[in-house]
């Protein structure tokens, strides 16, 4: 039998002890002590039954092994335990001179053999021992989860400790009584420390390196410090540029088709469809992105979202029942009117003719009928991915805030007020059309989605030049872009066992806390108590809001003085990111995070 097979064999014995603990109402943790291939002691958690703070499974098993063997030194023994030992139990292993410990599930809040501390490898102590982590981890975690689920269903108390185990919390104070054994310091040779587990979720450094390139560089730097590190990379996006590529890393089929570009030319646009063809992911910038526009005033007035509607129709015709639409990087200011027209909605002037494309057409809109578009969507659920909270109109509206980057002369206050009045009239017609669609039974409010009186002031309605408002009119759900992307790529499953999370972006400032991807990563990581480092190209003077959202350390990546042009050079940026990855790992080892 292989060494891995032997470890699994004895971990199953420890699991049997864990189940025995559950049977008597104790937190299900079990342990066995093995010498020369034979179990010399076994025990399970009995802290509540015995009202003994030291009655942890591995603590009791070690004491029983010493009694059985007639000696306190257990250097030829291996301890198998279903949950990572706390400080008290790890401290006893040091004092018992155990040869090795094998554990199943990691304990992020109390683990002392890799999660919070490395007591087995601390050179300041007088004994070191090897650790193997993660043996039958899923089974060990499942026993704990099942136990706590039972508690919730039995008393409705809503226990939140899960597999982190308040019942197995650290008892570091117990170490105070072990005595001073410095005079017995021994050298047991090199110690194997559990490899560090690092999760990378870094946004692109726009104009320099992609998300995947940034992560590859940081991973190289991390391995300078931890050569055996287990590094997982999750490319990151927030619903804008790069969302398709990020979600595609988790599966699905990227297909390419022709669609109308923002200025009427046919362009090549991609769409991601899942394996069952029940959902599709669309990036509006694929058909109506700012890269297709010269960003002049005339382009800003004429740019249309018609191609986005074409992509939505293609997804529905392909069988999609859910459509995720990422809003970001748009060239448009048409309030989504072009998208509605592509779906078949009647957006017409006083003569009943279709209005012209773009913001300019909104000056003449007189009536909107959403019914044909809603029938074309055939009940498909629309989920909008955006972290923009701007309303459709006003000082924080789509035109006032984003119009300038698309070519509108925002310094011309009188012209801007005129454009905004067109958008106000359009928004009111959308409101009327929504009421009519509801009366016809064509539009229902999705369960759990808040209703609104008018699309004009809804946070997020101004995203992508007002496309958010038109999608709301079709019954769309507005969701945080980064939160939704993290769900789609399975972030929570990947972060549970990580020791360190490294995120980042090109520039971090106070606005990053309002919904940028790295801060979304930090918030999610903090649910699991993980330390978070953000590597950034530049940073604001004050980042209190960012730190308040869960980022522990912000590391600017420039390793020496350099101008912006050089810093943006992909080769230079890669070198900078390698050094930043190294610094993040060193900071972790120094206890700075």
TrEMBL record:
The active site is at residue 58. It comes from the Bacteria. Gene3D superfamilies: Cytidine Deaminase, domain 2, Glycerate kinase, domain 1, Glycerate kinase, domain 2. Transmembrane segments: none annotated. Catalyzes the deamination of adenosine to inosine at the wobble position 34 of tRNA(Arg2). Homodimer. HAMAP family: tRNA_aden_deaminase. This is tRNA-specific adenosine deaminase. The gene is tadA.
């Amino acid at each position: 039998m292989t060494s891995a097979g032997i470890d699994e064999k004895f971990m199953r014995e420890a699991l049997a002890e864990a189940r025995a603990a559950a049977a008597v109402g104790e937190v299900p943790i079990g342990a066995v002590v093995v010498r020369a291939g034979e179990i010399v002691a076994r025990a399970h958690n009995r802290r509540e039954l015995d009202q003994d703070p030291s009655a942890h499974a591995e603590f009791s098993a070690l004491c029983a092994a010493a009694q059985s063997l007639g000696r306190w030194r257990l250097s030829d023994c291996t301890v198998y335990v279903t949950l990572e030992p706390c400080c008290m139990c790890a401290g006893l292993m040091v004092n018992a001179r155990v040869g090795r410990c094998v554990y199943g599930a990691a304990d992020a809040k109390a683990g002392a053999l890799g999660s919070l501390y490395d007591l087995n490898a601390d050179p300041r102590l007088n004994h070191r021992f090897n650790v193997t982590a993660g043996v039958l981890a899923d089974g060990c975690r499942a026993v704990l989860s099942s136990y706590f689920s039972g508690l919730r269903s039995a008393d409705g108390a809503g226990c939140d400790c899960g597999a982190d185990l308040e019942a197995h919390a650290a008892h570091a104070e117990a170490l105070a009584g072990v005595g001073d054994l410095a005079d017995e310091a021994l050298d047991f040779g090199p110690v194997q420390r559990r490899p560090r587990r690092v999760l990378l979720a870094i946004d692109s450094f726009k104009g320099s390196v992609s998300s995947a390139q940034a992560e590859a560089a940081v991973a190289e730097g991390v391995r300078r410090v931890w050569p055996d590190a287990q590094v997982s990379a999750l490319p990151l996006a927030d619903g804008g540029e790069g969302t398709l590529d990020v979600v595609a890393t988790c599966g699905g089929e990227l297909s390419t088709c022709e669609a109308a570009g923002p200025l009427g030319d046919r362009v090549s646009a991609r769409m991601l469809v899942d394996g069952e063809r029940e959902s599709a992911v669309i990036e509006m910038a694929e058909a109506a992105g700012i890269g297709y526009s010269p960003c002049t005033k005339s382009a800003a007035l004429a740019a249309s979202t018609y191609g986005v509607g074409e992509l939505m129709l293609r997804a529905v015709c392909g069988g999609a029942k859910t459509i995720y639409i990422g809003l970001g990087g748009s060239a448009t200011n048409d309030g989504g009117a072009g998208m509605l027209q592509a779906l078949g909605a009647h957006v017409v002037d006083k003569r009943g003719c279709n209005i012209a494309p773009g913001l300019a057409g909104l000056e003449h809109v007189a009536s909107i009928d959403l019914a044909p578009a809603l029938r074309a969507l055939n009940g498909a659920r629309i989920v909008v991915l955006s972290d923009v909270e701007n309303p459709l109109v006003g000082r924080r509206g789509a035109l006032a805030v984003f119009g300038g980057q698309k070519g509108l002369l925002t310094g011309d206050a009188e012209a801007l007020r005129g454009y905004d009045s067109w958008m106000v009239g359009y928004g009111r017609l959308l409101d009327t059309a929504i009421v009519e669609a509801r009366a016809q039974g064509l539009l229902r409010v999705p369960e759990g989605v808040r209703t609104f009186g008018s699309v004009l002031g809804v946070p997020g309605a101004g995203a992508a030049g007002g496309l958010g408002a038109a999608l709301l009119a079709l019954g769309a759900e507005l969701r945080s872009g980064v939160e939704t992307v993290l769900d789609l790529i399975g972030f929570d499953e990947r972060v549970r066992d990580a020791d360190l999370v490294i995120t980042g972006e090109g520039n971090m400032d106070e606005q990053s806390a309002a919904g940028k991807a790295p801060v979304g990563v930090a918030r999610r990581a903090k649910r699991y108590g993980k330390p978070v480092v953000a590597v950034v190209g530049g940073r604001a003077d004050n980042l209190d809001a960012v730190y308040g959202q869960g980022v522990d350390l912000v590391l600017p990546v420039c390793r020496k003085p350099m101008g912006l042009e050089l810093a943006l050079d992909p080769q230079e940026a890669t070198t900078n990111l390698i050094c930043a990855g190294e610094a993040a790992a060193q900071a972790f080892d120094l206890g700075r995070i």
